[in-house]
Structures are given as structure tokens and as C-alpha cells.
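Work package 3, deliverable 3.1, input record:
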Amino acid sequence: MNTPIIRVTDVHKSYGRGPNRFDALKGVTFDINEGESIAIIGKSGSGKSTLMHVLALLDAPTSGTIELEGVETSTLHGKSLNLARNKTFGFVFQQFFLTANATVLENVMLPMKIAGIKRGERKRRALAALEQLEMTDKATNKAINLSGGQKQRSVIARALVNNPRIIFADEPTGNLDTATGAVVEDILFNLNREHGITLIVVTHDEELAARCDRRLYIRDGLLVNDTTEVAA
Amino acid sequence: MKTLDLIGSAASNTFRSKTRTILTILAIFVGAFTLTITNGLGTGINQYIDDTVTSIGAEDVMSVSVTPEAESGIGGTSSGPTEFDPDAVASGGFGPGEGGTVVALTPDDLDTIADIDGVLSVEATKSITPDWIQYGDGTQYVTSVGGLVAGQSVQLAAGAEPDATTDALELNLPVSYVEALGFADADATIGETITIAVTDAERTQHFVDATIVGVAEESIAAPGAGGLVVNSALTDTLYDAQTIGIPADQQDLYAQASIRFDPAATDTEITTLKDNLADAGFTGTTVADQLGTVKTIIDAIVLVLNAFAVIALLAASFGIVNTLFMSVQERTREIGLMKAMGMGSGKVFGLFSLEAVFIGFLGSAIGVGIGMIVGTTISSVLSGALLADLPGLTIIAFDPLSITIIILVVMAIAFLAGTLPAARAAKADPVESLRYE
């Protein structure tokens, strides 16, 4: 078997010190292979968000290791860390995090702006991503004037535009009605299937989780159930 | 992120919250505007003084008088009456002791001065006190007479300067005398003859006819101190007439003398020359020295005014701190997102401090721009009204260097103000920023 895109080995994460110490993750171990779709499921406070942050290199684990494509992530610092974040990950958040007064196009171009890609190239690729999500006609609209579904599609375009290996989706349908949510889900799973982008969904929505290849159940900072292992 | 993109983003971010940004810019505008006007005032007045010094062309001329004894004269250290000095004469020159009593220069003194190292030539300043001047049978007017030291020039309204080399009696008339004496305009005076009356020591009045060759503009440091400017032939004639009846040993006493030195002399050489004169018991003053005092005072006033403007700018810089702190607070999510997308802390710091610098730039550019417009308007209005007597004075002038410095200083202050919020933004933890549970 190939090197997994992410290998998590005995990851602990705690906040605070002494009596206030809170263990969000208490030793989690699993692999994610390229092209998989994974759901991380858990209640509020179960540690699923912390796990996602650690996986997305937004936070460093207190102990244990995370390997990204075979590279120990604790060896990444400064520029190389930023480069890994920029090139490898795309983010889709429940609350969108679009810049309200900027146009959709500007929002979508942000990751490429950070990457230092030239203006013309930025625009071309952003428009291509928007076209893929049928948002071309909204490119010059301000983000604040979009509906929830349009916002989430803009966010997905933004997540896609740097051709990431992994898309993190944190409750991607949490703020959407059922119909729009279903459309957004379809888009995400399409990307996973047709473009081979690894999809990591953090959710407490069982229906959404059911569509994923694998489900990782987290409770009180521990991995309580990995569906692959059950299936195997 | 490319630097150019960073600057562009900073500029467009500045206008996210327009009202807040505009208010901050206004605060900076007030400081920059004040700084521009006060600086312009200093530049304008000093420029005028420089022009004046240059126009009278006396850069290589020094007026020399005998250094008064410490206890002589009013204001001396001794409280007793001043002892009589037979060599004391009334000074009529343009020296600091004008109108007062100074110890006279004797011909021996002139020889001593001529021997001092660095002195090219010595010329006694002949003080002439005319009774009046008259054109034809017109009204008689009181005036003063000043000679033209070689190298000096007159700011002319018409005609030419009096010729120093000719034997003809020539003079320049101040522009204010033109109509009073009965001429139609400045050009009409050229070639006309006026009569100057002087009284000698025996109370006999002498009349000297001289030709008007030009009309001089009046300025604060014009040769002849706003009176007639005469050539050496006329000076000698008037002086001879005036000194009739004075004993021979008194005739050659002068209140002041002009010396010339190398025009290429450096400040150090001039100082050395002054020291040499001081050792010999004389005081040398250049025109630049006298006006230099005025410049120092003006510089000091401008400095005080600038200090007020800087205080206004400091107050405005707290506005920048506040604006950016609010901005950082509002954009926590955006900062977190940018960091999650791989934007380094340095770039985040750069983005926010560039926003501060941009606000500073806008405030200062607008302040300087409007300051220049207002300053130019004020000075053109004033030069036509209140300051009409001082032709050539632009009360508020601007030079590109100080304008650039103002803008740069304001931008630097804005940058410093922006570092605090920018550092907070740079330190923001993406996880904290993106948390919403």
C-alpha cells in the first residue's frame, strides 16, 4: 500500500496547565489514504474540531506525530509550514468566512494572492473554479449579497482554486437548508470522486457522514469507532 | 504574498470601513495641514531674507566699527554716567548701533584694518544727512542718502543703477518719492534733475543738483535704507559740502567703514577675519550676520509652531492605533483564515502596518495639498494687501524637500502607531480566530 497522505500516530492535545488542564485529544491513531472521503463525527466538545485543526496544521499536537505525505509535520516551520498549508489544504467552513464587502472573485483569489501568483493567472484560475461551481455570473457580486448556498459554493471555489490535495470541510452544510445542503454535498463528493481530492468532513450530521467512505467517531478525545476497521 | 499585492490589499482594506478611516484621516489631515502651513511660513520668510541678502549682493562686504568699551554707552555694565569720548560720533550706517553713539574710525584705524589679513579693501562709510530733496519748484521732502558699495545691486523699478565710475552726479530715487515729487510714473523720472540740500557745520545750506538714473524698489534691506541711492561722485560732493567748516582733524572721522573680502571665503575664513578684526579692536558684521539673527528668530518661532502641529499628529496617531485595533478585532476571522491558508505572521504584520502607513499617507497628502492651496491663497491675498509694502515677499512658500519630509514623517508616525495593532494581528492564533462553537 502507498504512503498514506496523512498518518496520525498517538496524538495528544491538551490545553491549559495544572488543575485547569484539559485534554482534548487523548491518543488518536489512524491513517488517511489519498482520495478517501472521511467523516470525523462527534458531539460538541468531543475533540473533533481540535482533531481537524491538528490535521490541518493549524495547531501542533502536544505529543504524538502527524506525517503529511510521509513528512513529519513537526519539522515544518515558518515558510515551509505556510507553503504546506497553502498548497495542500482547502478549507470549507460552516460560517463561510468570506470577506463580506469584497467581490466573490476577490474572495476566491485570496489563496492565490497569498501564494504570490500573478494577477492575470489568479483571475483566470478563479474564474475557472467559479465556472466549475456554476457561479460565473456572480463573480462580481459582493459576497454579502449572496444566498447561503451561493456563499458555500464560493467558499468551495476558494478551497479548490489552489488545486489542494485535501479539502477540510467543517460542518459544510450546517448553515444551509436541506435542499441547498444536498447540492453542496454533491459538489464536495464529486470533487472527491472525479478529481481524487481527499475529503475530510467534520460533522455531527449522520446522513452526511454516511455518504463518506469512512467514518471516524470521536468521543471524549478518543477514537471510539473507525468504520474501515469494522468493515475489515 | 507579493509585496505589490500586499500594498494593494492594504490600500483596499483601508476603505472597508469608510467612515472610520475618513475620520482618522481627518485627524492626521489637521496635523499635516498645520505642519505644512507653519513650515511654509518659515520657508517663505527665510526665502525672502535670502533673496534680500542676495539682491543687495553684499556677500563679500563687511561693515566695521570700533568695538565699544564694555562700560561705555547705555546698557553697559557700569551704572555711572558715561565718560565723554572726543572720538565718539553719531553712527549713520546700517550697523546694529544705528542712531546711537559709536567711537569713530580714524584714518589710522582704516590703515590698521587694511593691513589685517583677509581684507581686500577698506572704504569709509561717509554719513550724509541731507535736509531735503526737491524736483523743480515742487515740495521739499526729507530723505536719507546711502551709497552703493561695489558689488551691491538695487532692485530697480525703472532705469539703471548709479554709475560708480563716472564723475557725473547720479542717483536712484525710491519708488515712493516718484509721485510725491511730481512725476507721472517711474519711467518719467529718468534723466530728470533733482536738487539735494545739505547744511554744513557753519549752518550754510548747499544745493547739489543730481540726475535721476533709476527708480529703486523698496525692501527691508535695500541699499540706502529706503532713501536715495547715490554714486560715489555724488557722495563725495555731498560729503564735501556737508563737512565745510569742520576742523580738518575731525573731517576724516567715520562712524563706520566697509571692507571687502574674498567672495569665495568660507564661513571659517569669515570667522577668522572677524576674530582678527576683534583682536585689533574692531567689530565686523556682514549683512548675512544681521539678517541671520532675524532668521534664527523666525526658525525658533516656526519650530514652536511645528511642535504644536506635531502634538496634533501625536493625537492623531492614537486615532490610528484605535482604528486599527478595531479593524483587527473585526477581522479576526479573516486573519485566521489567511493564516490557515498559509499567510505568514510577517506578512500579516506587514498588511496591517501598511494600512496604517497608507492612512498616514492619505492624511498627509490631503493635508499637504490643501495646506499648499490655502497657503498660496493666503500669501497672494496678503501680498496684495497687508504686505504690499514688501514686494517680493511670499509669506507662505513651499519647497519640495520639506513637503516630502512632512509626508514621510507623518507616514513614519503612522507606521509606529500601526505596529501595536499589527503585532496583535500577527500574533493571532488561527485556531482561536476560526473557533465558533
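Chain B has a mean pLDDT of 80.
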